[in-house]
TrEMBL record:
Protein species of origin: Enterococcus phoeniculicola ATCC BAA-412
Protein purpose: Covalent carrier of the coenzyme of citrate lyase.
One Pfam family matching this protein: ACP
Entry keyword Iron: no
Subcellular location: Cytoplasm
Chief subcellular location: cytoplasm
UniProt name for this protein: Citrate lyase acyl carrier protein
Gene Ontology molecular function, alphabetical: lyase activity
InterPro entries named in the record: CitD, Mal_deCO2ase/Cit_lyase_ACP
Length: 102
């Protein structure tokens, strides 16, 4: 999936994460994370975001995530939503998305 514009999903409320995605020229996934639990879970948060991007076929993106203790499923959902908004996609294949964790 190609990111064509910047987009945001989520909030900075407790137990949520705000994910902002922007297109970049380089074919890489850049992740900037600010989290109150970064020491304990920063590596896992980054991994969930990166894995989600790879499953969606995103190759050139800058991700800025502001985490307030979100669970993995919330991180994944916010990332998927931000990517779909940034790619101007109106539909989701939730059956396929749900099979990632199976």
């Amino acid at each position: 999936m190609e990111i064509t514009q910047s987009a945001v999903a989520g909030t900075v409320e407790s137990s949520d994460i705000m994910v902002t995605v922007e297109p970049i020229q380089e074919k890489e996934i850049q992740i900037s994370l600010e989290s109150s639990v970064e020491k304990q879970f920063g590596k896992q948060i980054r991994q969930v975001i990166e894995d989600t991007m790879k499953h969606l076929g995103v190759q050139a993106v800058r991700v800025t995530a502001v985490d307030k203790g979100a669970l993995d499923c919330t991180i994944q959902a916010r990332t998927i939503t931000a990517v779909h908004r940034a790619a101007k996609k109106d539909t989701y294949d939730w059956k396929e998305i749900g099979s990632w964790n199976a």
